[in-house]
Amino acid sequence: MKFKYPKKSLGQNFLKDKNIIDIIVNSADIKKNDIILEVGPGTGNLTEKILSKSPKKIFAIEKDKFLVEKLHEKFNEKIILINEDILKIDEKNYSNTPMIVFGNLPYNVSTQILIKWIRYSNLNNTFKKFILMFQKEVAERIIAQVNSKNYGRLAVLSSWKLKIEKIIDVSPHCFYPIPKVKSSVLLIKPKKEYFNIKNPKNLEHITNIFFNQRRKMIKKPLNIIFKNVNEISKKLNININDRPQNLSSLKYLEICKEFENLNS
After folding, report:
1. Of 11, 67, 245, 255, which one is least surrounded by beta carbons within 10 A?
2. Structural domain includes residue 21
């Protein structure tokens, strides 16, 4: 399929390696009644492999109008093409059953897309699983564990509602054009049960305050959030001399819960 040069403004890097494509699609374990949502199908290489598994339906969200036209020529009525920005759509409108999402996410907005999904109150009812490609550095921040150098707000937000495992690292040479960075594929499944907080944006707010000062002792961000720091630290069993990377995801959720209780 002929197509215009990839657009840097849309972060386009098209996956071409058939072995990697096979690994990605096989990791999803697609069944005949599955509904697929593919984000950024590009030239359709991954789409073609997904079609070979005969899912019930494939929705493909593509922002680039030129690519939508080419994908329509290639697949005709085999897939449902949606010429929209993934950040602006409501995925609940496309399926009444949980969907499998594939995405070679644009590096420049990948974390925004992930956080958009985490904000869903009915995440488990909308999505069955995600198989997503991220810049390797971002993927390492998503799966980072407490006390590690990559551990930060993205790991806290992600681990709140999601179970995540790395499938494979991907060489830049598996793409056209060749990006300057390595990539990683993550298999992500929504948790059926997770810590209850009123609003995900409160957790985003709390983690932003802490990790904007990640080298400072947590007494400082606690003082920004609470007036009664000593009382809160005792209640939650927090050492105010620790640093943000020393607090578990659960502690951040507990802090968020206290914040919500005080501001309700």
Report:
1. 11
2. yes
Query: Which H or E run contains 249?
Result: helix 249-262
Query: Final residue of a domain: which of 129, 155, 190?
Result: 190
Instruction: Give the DSSP H/E element, type plus range, for residue 252.
Output: helix 249-262
CA proximity to 139, closest of 88, 99, 105, 116? 105
Is residue 195 in a domain? no
Of the chain, the end-to-end C-alpha distance in Å amounts to: 56
Query: How many beta carbons lie within 10 A of that of residue 147, not counting itself?
Result: 11
CA distance 22 to 98: 23
Q: What is the pLDDT of residue 200?
A: 96
Kindly report which listed range (2-6, 165-169, 195-199, 206-210) carries the lowest average pLDDT score: 2-6
Sign of CA dihedral 5, 10, 11, 14: negative
CA distance 17 to 23: 10
- Left (φ > 0), alpha (ψ -120 to 50) or beta: where does 76 sit? left
Looking at this protein, which amino acid is placed at residue 58?
I
- Residue 44 falls in which region: left (phi positive, over 0), alpha (psi -120 to 50) or beta: left
190, 209, 240 - which closes a domain: 190
The CATH number covering residue 238 comes to 1.10.8.100
Question: Using CA atoms, how far apart are residues 260 and 132, in angstroms rounded to an integer?
Answer: 32
Q: For the whole model, what pTM was predicted? A: 0.93
Does 239 fall in a domain?
Answer: yes
Q: Coil, strand or helix: which one is 162?
A: strand
Whether 110 and 215 share a structural domain = no
Which residues neighbour 188 within 8 Å (Cβ) at sequence distance 6 or greater?
129, 130, 131, 132, 162, 163, 164
